[in-house]
């Protein structure tokens, strides 16, 4: 019996495109609906039926070979496993998380000081595997949600205190993670979102609170023609909490 291993997340991007993130190894897969059909059939044990259906639909080529090769690729990518823990169904999509939150133009001194600590901690966390980062942030689920003013101030403060001497990358992943950590240092909860959009396929990370999303501006602004879609989030978003 084939299963989806823990840590696999997926979301439909529109026009038949699907984004899949495996947080166990931090890798992305972008697939079409045909590949997703094969993935689903492998989980449900209906591969022979799918092959018959695809032949009846006039799919060109050796359908059985195509399906078998695709299942092999999905297994190699860590999206299917024949042993261990997992789920027998495709992971469900997460709630929409792109409605913008009110921005903050001038973060206060206190939050700017706290943001420095948040950035240092986030840069250290980025050295850990993504799965461990996700589990660490999951601990924040016990904190009360961040008020809009605190979330907006932290999101505005982090980009302003990037150290010029830092030799490594400080981009959306680091900035959004530092924002979540900064808010956590104030004893409040924000959510780290990793998402994608299609054509061309791109990945991005941003922050979500009940007041809305932070980090979807400038070149990363949400575009109705190819909107950002959240694929994985930590801590999990629970309605009305």
Please describe the structure with a list of short key phrases separated by commas or semicolons.
alpha+beta; 18% strand; 241 residues
Characterise the protein shown here:
- The protein is α+β, with helices and mostly antiparallel strands and 241 residues long.
- Helix content is 36%, strand content 18%.
- The protein has seven helices and seven strands; from the N terminus they run E-E-E-H-H-H-H-H-H-H-E-E-E-E.
- It has a four-stranded antiparallel sheet. It has a three-stranded antiparallel sheet with strand order 1-2-3.
- A hairpin with a 4-residue loop joins strand 4 (191-197) and strand 5 (202-209).
- Helix 1 packs across helix 3 (63-76), helix 4 (109-125) crosses helix 7 and helix 6 crosses helix 7 (172-185).
- The longest helix is centred in the middle third of the chain and has 17 residues, at 109-125.
- The model has no long low-confidence stretch (mean pLDDT 92).
Chain-wise SSE layout:
Elements: E1 8-14, E2 17-22, E3 27-32, H1 33-44, H2 47-56, H3 63-76, H4 109-125, H5 130-138, H6 148-157, H7 172-185, E4 191-197, E5 202-209, E6 212-214, E7 229-234
Antiparallel strand pairs: 1-2, 2-3, 4-5, 4-7, 5-6
Helix pairs in contact: 1-3, 4-7, 6-7
* Main sheet summary: 4 strands, antiparallel
Rounded to an integer in angstroms, the radius of gyration calculated over CA atoms is 20 Å
The proportion of residues forming helix, as a percent range, comes to 25-40%
Total strand segments: 7
SSE series: EEEHHHHHHHEEEE
Overall average pLDDT: 92
Instruction: Name the poorly predicted regions.
Output: none
Distance between the termini: 36 Å
Taken from the alpha-carbon principal axes, the silhouette is: elongated
Query: Taking strands numbered 1, 2, ... along the chain, how are they ordered across the largest sheet?
Result: 6-5-4-7
Number of helical runs? 7
> Strand fraction band?
15-25%
Structural class by secondary-structure content: alpha+beta
């Amino acid at each position: 019996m084939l299963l989806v291993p823990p840590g696999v997340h997926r979301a439909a991007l529109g026009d038949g495109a699907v984004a899949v993130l495996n947080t166990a190894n931090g890798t992305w897969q972008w697939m079409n609906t045909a590949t997703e059909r094969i993935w689903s059939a492998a989980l449900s044990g209906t591969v022979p039926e799918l092959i018959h259906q695809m032949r009846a639909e006039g799919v060109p080529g050796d359908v059985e070979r195509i399906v078998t090769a695709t299942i092999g690729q999905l297994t190699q990518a860590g999206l299917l496993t024949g042993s261990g823990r997992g789920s027998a169904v495709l992971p469900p999509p997460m709630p929409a998380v792109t409605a913008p939150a009110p921005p903050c133009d001038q973060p206060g001194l206190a939050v700017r000081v706290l943001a420095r600590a948040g950035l240092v901690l986030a840069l250290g966390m980025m050295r850990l595997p993504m799965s461990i980062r996700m589990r660490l942030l999951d601990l924040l689920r016990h904190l009360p949600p961040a008020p809009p003013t605190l979330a907006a101030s932290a999101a505005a403060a982090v980009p302003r205190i990037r150290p010029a001497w830092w030799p490594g990358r400080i981009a959306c992943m680091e900035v959004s993670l530092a924002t979540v950590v900064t808010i956590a240092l104030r004893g409040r909860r924000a959510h780290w979102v990793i998402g994608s959009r299609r054509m061309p396929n791109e990945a991005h990370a941003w922050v979500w609170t009940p007041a809305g999303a932070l980090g979807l501006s400038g070149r990363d602004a949400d575009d109705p023609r190819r909107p950002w879609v959240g694929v994985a989030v930590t801590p999990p978003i629970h309605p009305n909490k």
